[in-house]
């Protein structure tokens, strides 16, 4: 049986300004931003490029913590795998011939679809899409103050 919406970590609530005004769990473990976040050597070139683009931004916004590095690794690898699969689809098409000269779905289509699911899932954990970024970050300091909040 479903338990409802997943709980938002304390840090995410604080970043969002605790819009629901629910009690904040002060006993939750606190983790620091990684001191070094150089891309792992086992990642291929495309995944490392994505890592090097995202890691500094996620650390600067306070989203990426030491315990979240694996989420970024999986996201970057899924991105690289998706790009590789899309190149294969572009090269060979959506359908390919099997050993019996029958058309079948290009296996790269399955890889692309699975990689997109991982991108969606792990990207959401890192706040990499507009709706999750809004949920994660809430109101930013540069937004104008709402005059109705003071009433």
Automatic annotation (TrEMBL):
Locate the compositionally biased regions of type Basic residues. Answer: 1-13
Q: Which Pfam families has this protein been placed in?
A: Terminase_4
InterPro entries, per the entry: Phage_term_ssu_P27
Judging by the UniProt lineage, the source's domain of life is Bacteria
- Per UniProt, the ranges with Basic and acidic residues bias are 142-151
Q: Where is this region: Disordered?
A: 1-33, 130-151
UniProt xrefs under NCBIfam families: sm_term_P27
List the protein's name: Phage terminase small subunit P27 family
Please name the taxonomic classification of the source.
Bacteria, Pseudomonadati, Pseudomonadota, Gammaproteobacteria, Oceanospirillales
């Amino acid at each position: 049986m479903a338990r409802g919406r997943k709980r938002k970590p304390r840090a995410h609530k604080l970043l969002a300004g605790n819009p629901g005004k629910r009690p904040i769990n002060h006993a939750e473990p606190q983790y620091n931003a990684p001191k070094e976040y150089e891309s792992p050597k086992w990642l291929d070139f495309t995944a490392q490029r994505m890592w090097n683009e995202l890691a500094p931004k996620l650390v600067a916004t306070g989203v990426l913590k030491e315990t979240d590095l694996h989420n970024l690794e999986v996201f970057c690898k899924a991105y690289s795998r998706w790009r590789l699969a899309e190149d294969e689809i572009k090269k060979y098409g959506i359908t390919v011939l099997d050993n019996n000269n029958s058309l079948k779905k290009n296996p790269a289509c399955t890889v692309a679809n699975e990689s997109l699911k991982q991108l969606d899932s792990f990207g959401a954990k890192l706040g990499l899409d507009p709706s999750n970024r809004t949920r994660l970050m809430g109101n930013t300091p540069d937004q104008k103050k709402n005059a109705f909040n003071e009433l």
